[in-house]
Amino acid sequence: MTAVPRSPARPELVSALPILTILNDPDRAAMYRHLAGQAGVPTIEAEGALHALTQLERMPVAAIICDAQMEDMSGEDFREVVTAEESTHDVPVYVLPQLPEAGNGDAGALPTSPQVLGEVLTELGLSPAQLPVPLRTGAPAHLHGDLSQFSLPEFLNWVAEMRFSGHWLVTVSSRQGAAQPLAGHLVMRGGDLVYAECGGHSGKAAVFTLLQAIEEYRDAIFHFYLAEAPDDVRSPDLHAATPRLLIELAVDLDHHAAGHSLH
């Protein structure tokens, strides 16, 4: 995901103009809105490329972040349209990577919202000091370590018991055939796991993908940042309390492993 601005970055302009997002997942769009807001940058959202073009006629933006495939146009085609217009030709368009086909070793190596937004805001000229956690690379975490002795569910349950809110960033390395590590982003609000994304999946499927990769490769590190969690974000299938959710996922992982062992 790259898009170099065609004019020099102006941080004061970035904070004044919004970032336009065109994302198929409304919860992911809400997460971008929350994280950008924490950096002092407003966002506006469009439901598809045509809606976005209408909004661009009415309001200038600092940058655009869109999915590789929207309901009415591909991300690359949309970028060409934006570049061809005189009023928007210098607006950088960041097209998110498309989920590779199953069986591809890099299928999970997709960036999470903090990774994408941190890159975009940095390229637009914001200094690292202006970026909130979890966007700020190298920011001190309240809890961090590897998962060699204790499992991720154990840490999640502990934070849930303390009823903390914040962001988890989890990285799984050494995946066979993968050029990049698998990254996961989890959000807790008052101890409840309310949002997750990993490997192109969201919600419960994202947590399953992350736990499965950790179990398979056993080479993972995590950082937990105690921070305000958005009130308007909750993945539809993350409705159970964290301990109950993790029990359900443990059963799913056992069933998945048993099914594979039969073949």
Automatic annotation (TrEMBL):
SUPFAM superfamilies: CheY-like. Residues 144-255 form the PatA-like N-terminal domain. InterPro entries: CheY-like_superfamily (IPR011006), PatA-like_N (IPR025497). Gene3D superfamilies: 3.40.50.2300. This is PatA-like N-terminal domain-containing protein. It comes from Deinococcus radiodurans (strain ATCC 13939 / DSM 20539 / JCM 16871 / CCUG 27074 / LMG 4051 / NBRC 15346 / NCIMB 9279 / VKM B-1422 / R1).
